């Protein structure tokens, strides 16, 4: 099994290099890791009883669609907490109002300069606190889901902690697969005026 894994890794590295990309060994390893995560998510979406494809009989599973993994969409930043963490209203896709806290922002240094990307604090149905990035970009409604996409954010208590913000892990909310679900709609302040062609593409054409 170990030999098979090494063979697959070498094959994957050859495919990457033959596509004209001069990735470092570390980047090739990273790409293989993200591809493995995507493979596992496909299996989970297909087999998990709590998946929208198993909850909604009208939702028919097929493999999720992604942009090619691109190490250029991985950024490092501190979390800059807002001095006044305002509670704001965002809307769900079914029209309901939701209260969330605009907690802070991270900085990504991209093609046209530095961008601030909001981080929100919210509460799930079970009352558990969570943190998330919601965003739209120039691909929204074209290659990617028209409502927007999400990136999970794990808060670290160290104010000097350097976070990894990986747009290759950007994913669609459940409402993109089934109308039974409602999801938070990113606000105009959450738009990134760039083509963030990384992460998950739209499920339905």
Structural notes for this entry:
With 205 residues, the protein is α+β, with helices and mostly antiparallel strands. It contains three helices and nine strands, in the order αααβββββββββ. It has helices at 2-18, 25-47, 52-55, and strands at 74-77, 80-81, 87-91, 97-110, 113-123, 129-137, 149-152, 163-166, 191-192. Strands 2, 3, 4, 5, 6, 7 and 9 form a seven-stranded mixed β-sheet that branches. Strand 5 and strand 6 form a beta hairpin. Helix 1 (2-18) packs across helix 2 (25-47). The longest helix is centred in the N-terminal third of the chain and has 23 residues, at 25-47.
In the predicted model, the low-confidence regions spanning at least 5 consecutive residues are 1-11, 13-18
Mean pLDDT: 91
Shape estimate:
globular
How do the helices and strands follow one another from N- to C-terminus? HHHEEEEEEEEE
What would you report as the Rg, rounded to the nearest angstrom? 18 Å
Q: Compute the number of helices.
A: 3
Strand content: 25-35%
Q: What percent of the residues sit in helical stretches (DSSP H or I)?
A: 10-25%
Structural class: alpha+beta
Number of strands: 9
């Amino acid at each position: 099994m170990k030999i098979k894994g090494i063979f697959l890794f070498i094959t994957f590295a050859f495919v990457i290099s033959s596509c004209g990309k001069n990735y470092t060994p570390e980047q090739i390893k990273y790409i293989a890791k993200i591809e493995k995560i995507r493979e596992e998510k496909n299996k989970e979406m297909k087999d998990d009883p709590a998946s929208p494809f198993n909850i909604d009989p009208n939702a028919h599973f097929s493999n999720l669609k992604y942009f090619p993994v691109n190490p250029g969409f991985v950024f490092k930043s501190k979390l800059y907490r807002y001095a006044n963490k305002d509670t704001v209203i965002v809307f769900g896709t079914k029209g309901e109002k939701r209260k969330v806290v605009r907690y802070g922002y991270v900085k990504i240094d991209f093609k046209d300069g530095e961008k601030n990307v909001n981080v929100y604090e919210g509460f799930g149905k079970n009352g558990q606190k969570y943190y998330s990035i919601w965003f739209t970009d120039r691909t929204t409604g074209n290659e990617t889901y028209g409502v927007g996409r999400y990136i999970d954010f794990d808060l670290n208590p160290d104010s000097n902690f350097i976070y990894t913000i990986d747009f290759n892990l950007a994913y669609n909310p459940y409402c993109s697969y089934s109308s039974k679900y409602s999801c938070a709609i990113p606000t105009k302040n959450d738009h990134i005026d760039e083509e963030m062609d990384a992460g998950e593409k739209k499920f339905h054409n």
